[in-house]
Write a structure and sequence with these properties.
Number of helices: 17
Helix content: 55-70%
Low-confidence stretches: 212-233, 496-500
Number of strands: 15
Shape: elongated
């Protein structure tokens, strides 16, 4: 052990080059490592949602839920299936074993749902299968308001959504507070009677045309029937041109028996915003989600830049307010970590200055940033991220990692007073403390290793704690035994008694006298 660490002292040029390389690599890792608010944990749960327009709860359960449930029970690693059926909607929650590969399990679930799709009613929409993730939260929420009609606000939301989804790192943009466009068909009761047609004849003709699928309810007002179509699937002109068979096989069109209007759906969400204390106005709200594994800081900054650019073009004449930005919280956490690290370095230097000397204080304090930079290399290489959990671990590790460096510096200082030679003092310090420090570090590492074996969602959520602390501890022992002795040889003087040390001894004597007086008074 001593021979191995002594190698770094003898090959000082190699060690200096290694130190510089590790510092550069650590800075690159800090910049490149993804930053996020919480760890990206995918919960082993799949949700199957199926819509049956106009279906009652009992019909949905019998025609949709029961058929899908029977199929998904055969999927591998399924531990529990729960479902709920309501008017027009079936929701099935499939829970997998904690050790299941969630990506493969969700894909298997989708395959089984695709197989049962042909057995579902033709009116049912295609079932959607989704997974649950802690990270599936918006990283930035912005509201846009202005003197715009509902239709204009809806069109603006679609345009801005399309622009923001092209920003690198953005997975999707949700728009709320607007009414989606839809084509409305207002049937004329007199025309239906004239041509001896029913509402079913009209809806079947529209469905058979492939232009759109009827959605929602048919409103009977004594005079007209309203049939609403899914937005974006067709234009009013296309719907008006749909043909259907009239009396005696004559060809009719929807425009002959109904008024076709390019309208808006009933409002399902409302969004209002107040700017600078002004009365609140209707607005559209944009919720931006980042791509999996993306960097919150870079993505949020890119989105803000895009919004600033859109203010000069698409959003000109409107007011845009960013009400939530997860990047701000990450920046605050990083600033808190930096502040804690700087405070720790200063406290370490003050204590070592009072006890050993300013040169020894600088050497010991240098072990903190070096250990962090090396630890970041390991975190980046293993795919870890900087999040609230890993930041907590880094702050916790600050008080642990400096111990080894202080012990080595103090040992070199002590042996230097006795031997009078920096190289011999460093070798003697390594011979005396290398094994104890290495063993002590490994025992601390062993405390956190069991956290790797925690199963379930909790185990995945806190996995970054043992990763982060173990990387920091291993980096600290490498710095303490491999780099600190070399730094000490460069900075520590062989003349070990000076006026500065006389001053330090006087300070320590005064502290000792004050402490003894304090004990007597107590």
């Amino acid at each position: 052990m001593t021979k191995f660490w002594t190698f770094f002292i003898r090959k000082e040029h190699f060690t200096v080059l290694l130190m510089i390389s590790l510092t550069i690599a650590g800075i690159v890792a800090v910049i490149g490592i993804p930053k996020e608010s919480t760890p990206e944990i995918v919960i082993p749960i799949g949700v199957i949602t199926t819509v049956l327009p106009g279906g009652s709860a009992s019909d949905v359960e019998r025609l949709i839920t029961d058929k899908i449930e029977d199929r998904v029970l055969s999927v591998e690693h399924v531990s529990k299936v729960t479902s709920s059926s309501g008017d027009g909607v079936s929701s099935i929650v499939v829970q997998f074993d904690a050790n299941a590969n969630i990506d493969k399990s969700i894909q298997s679930l989708k395959d089984e749902v695709d197989k049962v799709h042909s057995d579902l009613p033709t009116e049912a929409l295609t079932p959607s299968v989704s997974s649950v993730s802690f990270s599936d939260q918006p990283i930035l929420i912005a509201s846009v308001s202005g003197n715009l009609a509902p239709a204009e606000l809806t069109a603006l939301g679609e345009t801005v959504k399309s622009d923001l989804e092209r920003v690198p790192g953005v997975s999707r943009v949700d728009v709320s507070g607007v009414r989606a466009r839809e084509v409305q068909v207002i049937l004329q009761q007199a025309k239906l009677r004239q041509y001896n047609l029913t509402v079913s004849d009209v809806t079947n003709a529209i469905s058979a045309s492939g232009l759109a699928t009827p959605e929602g309810s048919i409103v009977v007002d004594g005079v007209s029937y309203a049939v609403r179509l899914e937005a974006g699937l067709s234009t009013p002109e296309q719907v008006a041109d749909v043909s259907l068979a009239g009396p005696g096989g004559a060809t009719l069109h929807i425009r002959d028996i109904a008024n076709v209007i390019d309208g808006l759906q009933n409002a399902s969400t409302y969004s209002r915003v107040s700017v600078d204390g002004q009365p609140s106005q209707p607005s559209l709200t944009l919720s931006i989600h980042k791509a999996k594994g993306g960097n919150i800081l870079s993505t949020a900054n890119s989105v803000k830049k895009e919004l600033e650019a859109l203010k000069k073009t698409t959003l000109s004449g409107t007011q845009t307010v960013v009400s939530f930005n997860a990047a701000d919280q990450i920046n605050r956490d990083l600033s808190e970590l930096t502040r804690a690290g700087i405070e720790t370095v200063i406290l370490v230097m003050i204590i070592l200055f009072l006890t050993l000397g300013w040169r020894e204080a600088v050497v010991a304090a240098a072990s903190i940033p070096l250990s962090f930079l090396i630890a970041f290399i390991g975190m980046y290489a293993t795919g870890n991220t900087i999040n609230v959990v890993s930041l907590f671990s880094l702050i916790l590790a600050i008080g642990i990692l400096v111990d080894s460096g202080i012990v080595v510096v103090e040992a070199i200082h002590t042996h230097l007073e006795r031997l009078g030679n920096k190289f011999d003092a460093a070798v003697e310090a390594l011979r005396e403390y290398a094994w104890p420090l290495f063993a002590g570090t490994l025992t601390t590492v062993a405390v956190f290793v069991p956290l790797f074996f925690l199963s379930g969602i909790v185990g995945k959520f806190i996995a970054s704690i043992p990763f982060t602390i173990i990387f920091v501890l291993l980096a600290s022992i490498f710095v303490a035994l491999g780099l600190v002795p070399l730094l000490a040889m460069f900075l520590v003087k062989e003349s070990t008694h000076s006026a500065m040390e006389d001053s330090q001894e006087r300070i320590m004597h005064k502290i000792k006298v004050w402490y003894e007086k304090f004990l007597r008074s107590v």
